[in-house]
Amino acid sequence: MLRNRSLLIQLLASLAAVAIASSIALPAGGVEAACIVAALGLALAALFLAVTAMRIYALARLSRRVEEALEGKRTVSFADMSEGELAILANVVGKTIAQLAIANEDLAREKDALADALADISHQIRTPLTSLVLELELARTRASTPELRERLRKSESSLEQIQWLVSSLLKLARLDSGNVGLTRQSVGVASLVDAAFAPLAVPFDLKGVAFESSVASGIAFEGDPSWTREALTNILKNCLEHTPEGGCVGVTASEDALACRIRVEDTGPGFSDKDLPHIFERFYRGCTDQDPQGFGIGLSLARALIRGQGGQVRASNARSPQGIVTGARFDIAFFKVLV
Is the pTM higher than 0.70? Predict the structure, then answer.
């Protein structure tokens, strides 16, 4: 109670007032009058302390019950808070908590409904898109002229991009609504990098971009292997899109007492200072991005998936010892749980 500076100042002021009153009463009425004044002053100070202590105790009780409500306890009651303005405050807090509990239940129901809607939308969109891809592929094999086959090939490629975009947007929506079940298990970084690169092996080869991985077999972290693989694939895909023919994309990893760290670097033009703060924003394609196939969604999804596991991802420019930009760099960190 005495840690309350305001209360301590009031107590000291009261004692000072008692001392002054006693000193004034001493010459006027003698020692007996001074003692009576001092006794009355001390009694009033003691009464003040007792009342204040009761109020502080009541506030502490109110604080504990608010904390219990924040922890999700629905049976928190303020009915025994019967002291004046504190009772009014407790009543308002109780009503607010009840309203928040109702809103939380409504939000949970909406969240479940959104999960069902997303699952239905995903099925309804993917089914016709898959059918269109198969039909185009069949038509391309039966095309009568090279020109028609090329047109069908471009149409098929565009449709595959639409499939990827729709799938990515649905995944982001699921992440936003909290409907993605992320598992937690040991993930070996070496096998993770191999799995993330596998779907991009042919595009890397067709573009003439080399891929290098230097990851020791013992490096690992706790996370979701499937979603982390997708996040890393999106980052590698971004590097491939911005690395010229003859360039290279490399992955390294390290582990220390705090985290498992994965670094991805390319030999492209890097990021402009204007673009760096917005690299992970949805649909942001950069001031100088000339890639007509980019949607500006892959890095946003990658960050959401990594952050959903308690990790971090940061973009920067790789530089030579002379300070010259040599490409883009992505640093991923999965922190360890310290007990």
Answer: no
